[in-house]
Specification:
Radius of gyration: 22 Å
Order of helices and strands: EHEEEEEHEHHH
Number of helices: 5
CATH architecture: Roll
Largest sheet: 7 strands, antiparallel
Structural class: alpha+beta
Number of domains: 1
Strand content: 25-35%
Length: 167
């Protein structure tokens, strides 16, 4: 498992990505995972309030207890690791680092499931399943994920003719 920083160049080139986390003018540490032959950077973040990720530990931030871990919803596609990622991201918390290393298989399988469920939901037009992806960055990567929505079924209705009956 690799822990890297997103490069400043990458952040500048992808600031238009819907739902990306480039809001604090700081470096972002990510874990890289390959799914369907695509490499994603899953950010480490604080204040995770949903189930789409891995909670590693909790800390107190601004007087409140916050979940900290990996946020699958904010994953970014890494197309060129050499230029998109920079030096090693050092995780200061021994507890968080241990949980990440112990959960490597779980992270990979859960993120694969997260991506594949999204692909299936889009392709099948399953609006209910897509509710869980409202804040996901995956909506930016339909071409790269080779998502091909099924056409909506059409129904052809023959026009009824009105015939006047003589009196």
């Amino acid at each position: 498992m690799n822990f890297k920083y997103l490069s400043k160049t990458f952040q500048a080139q992808t600031e238009h990505i819907d739902e990306a986390l480039f809001d604090k003018n700081r470096g972002y540490g990510v874990v890289t995972i390959t799914v369907n032959n695509l490499t994603f950077g899953i950010p480490l973040r604080t204040k995770i309030t949903h189930k789409n990720g891995l909670i590693t530990d909790q800390i107190i931030r601004d007087g409140e207890l916050c979940n900290r871990g990996l946020d699958y919803q904010k994953a970014l596609l890494i197309e060129n690791e050499a230029s998109d990622l920079t030096g090693a991201f050092k995780i200061k918390s021994a507890e968080q680092r241990k949980k990440l290393y112990e959960s490597e298989y779980k992270i990979k399988t859960n993120f694969e499931r997260y991506v594949n469920k999204y692909i299936k939901a889009v392709e099948n037009g399953n609006d209910r399943a897509l509710e869980g992806y409202i804040f996901s960055t995956l909506k930016n990567y339909h071409v790269q994920l080779d998502i091909k929505p099924k056409p909506k079924p059409t129904v052809t209705i023959k026009k009824k003719r009105t015939i006047e009956v003589p009196k």
